Amino acid sequence: MTTSDLIQQIKFKKSFLCVGLDTDLTKIPFHLRKHHSPIFEFNRQIIDATAKYCIAYKPNIAFYEAEGLKGWEALKQTVNYIKENYPNIFTIADAKRGDIGNTASKYAQAFFENLKFDAITVAPYMGKDSVEPFLAYESKHTILLALTSNNGAFDFQTQTLDSGEALYQKVLQTSKTWENSEQLMYVVGATKPKYFKTIREIIPQSFLLVPGVGAQGGSLAKVCKYGLNKNCGLLVNSSRGIIYASHGKDFMQAAELKAKGLQKEMAGYL
Amino acid sequence: MTTSDLIQQIKFKKSFLCVGLDTDLTKIPFHLRKHHSPIFEFNRQIIDATAKYCIAYKPNIAFYEAEGLKGWEALKQTVNYIKENYPNIFTIADAKRGDIGNTASKYAQAFFENLKFDAITVAPYMGKDSVEPFLAYESKHTILLALTSNNGAFDFQTQTLDSGEALYQKVLQTSKTWENSEQLMYVVGATKPKYFKTIREIIPQSFLLVPGVGAQGGSLAKVCKYGLNKNCGLLVNSSRGIIYASHGKDFMQAAELKAKGLQKEMAGYL
Q1: A226 to each of A33, A72, A79, A191, A230, how far by Cα in Å?
Q2: Which fold has domain B3-166+189-269?
Q3: For residues A237 and B216, what is the distance between their CA atoms, to the nearest angstrom?
C-alpha cells in the first residue's frame, strides 16, 4: 500500500484512526474464551465492527508471542482476514524490532513477506544498518521510534546531546539521510504534544503513528493542533479504549461506538 | 539459573563461550533440508557437538520468526532440548525487545514463561518502564543493549550528551538505578575493544554478552584483555563461525572443532 493510497483512504473515510489489536486472552469476553481460536475470533469481530471507521490495524506482536504457536497462528489469520476482506486498510506490525543487518533482514522477511504486513515499527538504537534492511522493501513502510508515549521516554530520548539537539531529534535528522528514507514514518506519543512542533519542523511531510490516546491519557485535540499536515500525516492509534470498551457480549457494539466517536472527532479536525 | 551457577559452569568447563543459533534454512547442510523438522534437527546436532565446550546457547529469534509457525515450533523444541539434556547450560533469547510496560510484560511472558529461556536481550531506547517488566522475573536475566557490534552503533550509541558522557555510558549508568538491576547483563560488541575499559569502570561486576568475534571480525584477545573481571564477567558469542564451519555432512565435527578451539583459547585467558 503506497502513501498516496493511504492518504486517499484517509480522505475517503474522513478518519486517521488506527485500531490497536492488543488482544489478551485474559481480557476478551468470557463467551469467546472457549472458542477453538479465541484470539482470531475476537479480532475478526472487532475488525468487522470497526473497519468502516478506521484506516489501519496494528496488532501488537507481544500479545501474540505470549501465546506461542497459537498466537502466531492467530496473528497470521488476522492479517489474512484484513487483506482479504478490507484490502484498503493499512496493516502495521507493532514489533519494535532492531538488530544488525543480517538479522534485521530476517525480521523484515518475517513481517513483510510471510505475514504480509504493510508496515512495521522499528527501534533506532542500533542505527542505520539495523533499519535499512526494512527500508529495502520499497512497497512497505518502516515506522521508526522517535519519541514514545511512556515515561521511560525521558530516560534517553529527550536527553540533550552536545550539539544542542535532543536524542529523538538526532534520530529524526539522521534517519532522513538513510536509503529509501521516504518510506519512513515515525512513532510519536500522544502524551507529549508539546514536542510535536519541533518534530514537524524536522519532518514536515512524514506520517506519524501516534499511540497514547485513550488508556495512556493523550489528547486528540492537541495531537491534531500540532501534528496535522496538508496530507493529514497522522495515524492515531487507540487499542484498549476500543477493543475493551466492553467485556461483555456487546463488545462489538461498544467497540464500534468508540471507533465511530473517534472517527467523528477526526473528521472535524481534517 | 543464577549468576553463581553460571560462574561455576564457566570455572568447571574453563569456557565462557556462547554458541549463537542463527539457524538459516538456506545455510544448513543439504542433507538436512528434507528432514521433517530441519531447523531443530540442525540445532540438536550442533548442540550435541558443542555442549562440552560452551556455557550458553543463544538462538537469534529473527531466524525463527522468519520461518513462521515452523520456526516457533523449532525454537521451542530447541530450548526444551537444551533444558532436558544440558540443564546447566544458560539459554539466551536474542530478541532485542523493548516496548511500554504492559507490552514488555507480554514479551517477558513469551520468553521467560512459555519458552523458559534464562535470559533475553532487550533494547534501552524506551527507558526504565520498558525494561523493568523483564527484571521483575527474579530468577531470570535481562541483557541490555549498551554498545553493539555493528557500524550503526556510531549513529546514536556513541553520541556525546551535554553531560559529557556518551549515550551508551548514560544507558549503563541509568540502568544501575532500576529495580532488580543486579540481574542486568549488557551487550557490548567485540568489534569495539577500546570502549571496554570505560564500560568496566561503570559496571565492573556485570556480565557482558559479547557478539562480534568471528564473522564480524572482533578479537577475543582484546575482549579478554579489557573485559575480563574476577568472575570472568564475559559471555563471548560466536554464531556463524561455529554453526556454519562446514556446510557438508561433516558440519558437526567442524562445529565441534571450532568450539573446542575457542574453548581452549578461553581457558588460556581464565
Answers
A1: 41, 37, 32, 12, 12
A2: TIM Barrel (3.20.20)
A3: 39
CB burial readout B63-78, b (16+ within 10 A) else e: bbbbbbebbbbbbbbb
Domain ranges of chain A: 3-269
Dump pLDDT digits (tens) for A197-236.
Answer: 999 999 999 999 999 887 778 889 999 999 999 999 999 9
| Cα dist from A126 to A69, B78, B139, B143, B150, whole Å | 29, 27, 28, 15, 8
Q: Which residues pair with A218 in a beta bridge?
A: A213
Distance to chain B for A93, nearest Cα, Å: 13
Q: Which of B87, B188, B193 is nearest to B144 (CA)?
A: B188
In this predicted complex, what is the ipTM?
A: 0.97
CA distance B177 to chain A (A): 11
A27 band by pLDDT with thresholds 50, 70 and 90: very high
DSSP label of A193 = G
DSSP H or E stretch at residue A68: helix A68-85
- The answer to whether the CB of B109 falls within 8 A of the CB of B81 is no
Distance, first Cα to last Cα, chain B: 22
Grid cell for residue B258: 571450532
Residues B232, B16: Cα–Cα separation, whole Å = 8
Write the CATH number of the domain with boundaries A3-269: 3.20.20.70
Do B110 and A153 make contact, defined as CB atoms within 8 angstroms? no
Q: Which residue of A has its CA nearest to B161?
A: A161
* Cα gap A237→A266, rounded to integer Å: 12
Per-residue pLDDT of A237-258, as tens digits, reads 999 999 999 999 999 999 999 9
How does pLDDT run across B236-260, given as a tens digit for each residue?
Answer: 999 999 999 999 999 999 999 999 9
